[in-house]
Amino acid sequence: MPSQTIPRAARCAAAFLLVIVAAVVAGFAGKGDVSGTVTYKGKPLPEGTVQFQSATGLVVPATIGADGKYKAVGVPSGGAKVSVTSRDDEGAVAWSKAMSAASKDPSKKGAVPKGSLGDFNRIPDKYNDFDKSGLTYDVKTGDQTFDIELK
Q1: Would you say 132 and 81 are in contact if contact means Cβ atoms under 8 Å apart?
Q2: Is 31-86+121-150 CATH 3.30.365.10?
Q3: Rounded to an integer, what distance in angstroms lies between the CA atom of residue 14 and that of residue 5?
Q4: pTM, whole model, 2 decimals?
Q5: What residues does each domain of the chain span?
Q6: Does 109 score more than 70 pLDDT?
Q7: C-alpha distances in Å from residue 33, one per residue of 19, 27, 28, 137, 143
Q8: Would you list the DSSP string of 35-94?
Q9: Any residues with CB less than 8 A from the CB of 36 and at least 6 apart, and which?
Q10: I need a labelling partner for 82 at 20 to 30 A (CA). Which of 11, 28, 140, 145 fits?
């Protein structure tokens, strides 16, 4: 009995078709819009960023408003890691200016607050890192609410 072989062109066409089908299925897997309120020690976080990292590594950010509310649009459905960042930028700018003035005039060295730029995070550093924050969310298709309570 003669062995049958599939021509190379047919194998390539089948592989290409498989890749296209996988891409289309992934595209229709669904996305969700996630909104909520971020609180730290029971109070709304006044500004910052919430980020959702999908299983494929896609990151979708959302800005935190003065009332602690955020809305992330188009987050891929499925499990997501979550990070939150919030810095006191005014304090960081004032610290940087004081450092700059002290470097130009040593007599102003006593006016520089102790610490570093990292001291101007409003929340613990662990929340800035997807792998350390401990925050996850299972994103569904459509609109949903995910309130984030930081301690």
Answers
A1: no
A2: no
A3: 14
A4: 0.67
A5: 31-86+121-150
A6: no
A7: 27, 16, 15, 12, 5
A8: EEEEEETTEE--SEEEEEEETTS-EEEEEE-TTSEEEEEEEESEEEEEEEE-B-HHHHHH
A9: 69, 70, 145, 146, 147, 148
A10: 28
User: Cα(89)–Cα(110) distance, rounded to whole angstroms?
Assistant: 22
CB 81 within 8 A of CB 130: yes
SS3 100: helix
Cβ neighbours for 125, distance < 8 A, ≥ 6 positions apart: 118
pLDDT digits (tens, 9 = 90+) for 129-148: 999 999 999 999 999 999 99
Give 128's contacts (C-beta < 8 A, 6+ positions apart).
Answer: 83, 84, 85, 121
Token reading at 92 = 């960081």
pLDDT band at 104 (very low <50, low <70, confident <90, very high): confident
Distance of CA 132 to the CA centre of its chain: 13
Q: What is the pLDDT of residue 112?
A: 56
16: enclosing H helix or E strand: helix 8-27
